[in-house]
Amino acid sequence: MSYYRTAVAVLSACVALAGCASGAARQASAPEPAKVVTGTVSNLASINTHPEILAADARRDAAGEEIARARSTLLPNAGIEASAGVAAGDGDEFDSRTTGNAYSYALTVDIPLYQGGRGQSAVAAAKADYRASGEVANDRRVSAAYELALALIEVHRQKGAVEILGKQAAILGSLKRGIETELKAGAASRVDVDDVGRQLSRLSVERERARLLIAQASRTALRLGIAPETKLPEVSRLQLPSEEQDLIELAVNNNPRVKERDARADAAKARVSQAKGDLLPTVSAGLSVRGGEDTLPGVDRHVAGRGEVRFSMPIYTGGRVSAGIRQRNDENRAAVFEADAARIGVTAAIRSAFDRRVLAKRMQTLAQAERRNAASALEGVRAERKVGERSTFDEIRAIADLASSEINLNNARYDLIAAEYTIAAETGLVGELFGVPGVQQTADAE
Prior knowledge:
Its main location: membrane. By secondary structure, the chain is of the alpha+beta class.
């Protein structure tokens, strides 16, 4: 259930008061609006050790090893072969049946000279995949921080609602006690007491509903190992640009989803070149030293060396290579479109959050004016009720209007904070507020 339903329920409580009777009582002063819970944080950096973050880092490390594998195709390969066994022979060339231990050994070196660019393309693709994996890890950090921020915002929003409803209940409780005193003196009716009691019961339900929303919102914080009572850091610490276009440029250049898609596009382009290399010849050199010994008659110990240059040229592959090239081209086009889509999505998110921030600021200003008017109206109703010009119902409704205005102000404040956190998330900088820095690319990947 969203926080809007809480506000609607409070407004519904006002409508339900239409049948209240008149009376008079002295009431407590109007409550102050709830304050936004923000401040210095110290334990949010524990997100860095959450398994979701560690898993993304492990995948990034695995992608980094692919670079070494791709580079190995450009380097010489050396190996040693050895064998030993039992040899037996019987025939005209043997004096008699003879058995003995035979062994052989070989040292081989294979040197790639030309591969049609396959190796270089494989290295470029592996580097791009590594960068993409790093951005995935960064995006996971940003997502975790943003999820946590929204959860904490909702927790504090509902706590503010509970506080507002509690103050309203305290005022109604004071009114009820005054009416009960007047009832004993014959200046009020039982209906007035029942109406106030009915509103107190409704407020109890609304407070429990808000607490239920707190429990639901706390799930994300608890999953990330953060206490739901943790204070929110100030977004102003990031010193984000104030203009919409500047925010869009910052987000497009810094958002990890955009950077990941760009890296995927680079990898897809490199794989196109790698596929085209299958149409080109390969040239390699081979060196080997072989030796062995056999105890059979007529076989002596021997050592031989050999050097060669090998040339391979594909002439007909049955369409396999051409199909592979077309497949890689299609994958490249898809990667480019996905990168464009990521930019469009981030731009739309920034514009939407920017508009939400403007509207939330306007709503906050209007809610502040509404609260001032509601507080003034409550004081006027109280003064008029003392001289018998207003009923108990009028005061109950004025108290509910004040609480409703405070809930609207509370919602507007946290709507503004949520919009600011959305902007911070889309620019890829929200992690800095929570002590979750982005991963750094290693020199081996460049």
